Fold these 2 entries.
Entry 1:
Amino acid sequence: MRYAIFSDVHSNLEALEAVVSACKKESIDKYFCTGDVIGYAASPNKCVEIVRQLTMITVAGNHDWAAVNLFSLDSFNSDARESLLWTQRALTSESKLFLESLTPVYRNNELTLVHATLNNPREFNYLQDVFSAEESFVLQDTSVCFLGHTHIVGIFVSDSEGKVNYSEQAVLNLSQGNKYIVNVGSVGQPRDADPRAVYCIYDTQKKTIKIKRVAYDVKSARNRIIEAGLPSALGNRLLTGH
Ligand code: ZN
């Protein structure tokens, strides 16, 4: 099977469309999303619709739940909070039903999905160092877990003795006995100094994971954020990927 996994679309339609059209050329069997479909940018309903049309499995992100009052707005900075209040007003009842239906963790025989960490997944803590990766690995039954939340691509590898290393390589050959946490970055608001949208392909036969980036019309996405009356910083940061 060839799986496409992506995260943190954040209402960025231009970025999502670029990722979907790149994936359509890759013979993908199934799509997965590790949360935060909405928040920050100007197209929450269209992004929800596309994600639903892909009949993909999606887990809940902190923005997804905050937009439907399942998570407190207090933990967000002022721009994020403002965009969530805007999003709450913009969401259709259909989109709200979708966001309300999302659960924090998904598992099958081949992979686990979570937005932030497997330990206390409803708290949406940041998995950004070896220590926090170790805490999540303890609860990981599958060899691979995909997540997002930090908007920074990276892979944590736990070897057969439980020693954890961090890697930023774009192509990974999976080894038996190891466990992996793959942060797939962000489609709609990358923060690792590369403004292109990111997604990931997991080939379960070849046992490979590939991180891919695709350029999109960043200026249009930025302009629509500003025209919608959202904080201009949320548009401008897309230009640099910070
Ligand atoms: Zn996010």
Entry 2:
Amino acid sequence: MSTKKTLLSGVKPTGRPHIGNYFGAMKQFVDMQNDYTAIYMIADYHALNLVQNKSEMAQNILDVAIDYLALGIDPQKSIIFKQSDVPEHAELTWIFDTITTMPYLQRAHAYKDAEAKDKEINVGTFNYPMLMAADILLHDTDIVPVGQDQKQHVEYARDTAQKFNFIFDTDTFKLPEAKILEHVAVVPGTDGRKMSKSYGNTIPLFATREEITKAVMSIPTDSKPIDEPRNPDEDNVYKLHKLFSDHGELYELGERYRKGGMGHKESKELLIEHIDAFIAPLREKREQLAHDTDFVLDVLREGGKRAKQKAERKMEAVREAIGVKLY
Ligand code: ADP
Ligand code: TRP
């Protein structure tokens, strides 16, 4: 038996990933796969709250699988699967629903945000944290690498594990922990707010050079003359440089800001160069994989089988714990 701890994380297939997703979460997926039993999910049933169109959903799922592979997740080492291939996730969600109260779910940030915006909220959105708890707990997960905005969801999973174990007097579920890298917990978007698909302020992770240029050039900057000293930490362009420069480069750049003479145009052009140099090989890899759909579908099919076997075993233990397993 492997003594490695289990890592699980996931991404919703709701559109192109951006560099906030990458530095906040997906980079860790690649970096950590050697040291953990690693499971990466495509959260299609979560995405169904937003994507309710057959061809768009199918394409989005395939796209996330290609993204995972292009970034370097190795299907020989890690399980890549889509949530809908393992119906046990939905089954466990139901069981969690029965031990969860409405006021507890009403405290979720995502729900409160939607409510504050007077949005019509579907039951799936309200119940989102319970499906995510099922994702995490079904696979005996120790650690969940995510960005800051998912911290509360991992806490919901942990609370739910504790509550289930207490009510049924069992140790069925492990208590998972979020893994958040502090310096990239919230990657800023081109407008300075959190980079997010829903704000339209992203730099796509597999962007073309033209897209990178357009996004970087759109970053608002102050109107001080070039020669005036500037605080780099108040500059949106510099904040993004932090992701793409090494320590020495960043120090030099910061000094030039502080001394004065570092114009926005020059800083933006440098950033475009750095981002493009970083993205170019990923773009190429992605392009190759996009032509090999059969391989990508095989990876998903195989990952789905492996994840389902694990989940079936765990559900047996859950049914036993709650008293519905009679034979
Ligand atoms: P979005 O907010 O763009 O819809 P997702 O909800 O699909 O992104 O997030 C996928 C993963 O990326 C999650 O782990 C999330 O915490 C992380 N993430 C998203 N945006 C950022 C950001 N701006 N900075 C750091 N991590 C992020
Ligand atoms: N809710 C996560 C997001 O929006 C995606 C997700 C679904 C997830 N299930 C998960 C992340 C399980 C980590 C573990 O980004």
